[in-house]
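Hello again, I could really use a second opinion on something today. I've been staring at a protein lately and its backbone has me curious. Can you walk me through what the tokens say about the fold? Take your time with it, there's no hurry, and the full record follows here:
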Amino acid sequence: MKSMYDMQREVDQYINQFKAGYFSPLANLARLTEEVGELSREINHYYGEKKKKQTEADNTIEAELGDNLFVLLCIANSLDIDMTQSFDKTMHKFNTRDKDRFEKRSRDKSV
């Protein structure tokens, strides 16, 4: 299994083979918005009321999540942000600030 660091390195190696390099953060944000829209469309097709047309290409939620992650990693790399550190800080925030926000599951399996 690849670590987040490995994924960031792989994206960096891929992008750096091209003269253009990374798009600007604003251009990548536009790309991310597009990818989130495509993810939304797939989720709506699978779980919502709007089913795919027979003429629409097959796509999957998994593929769209991968596309979103790729663009997020591009943004992080272009801004020199370590996503492992970013994620760790986010989880710390959720585990402290929001630790009592939601009702917890019972640890007792018989309940």
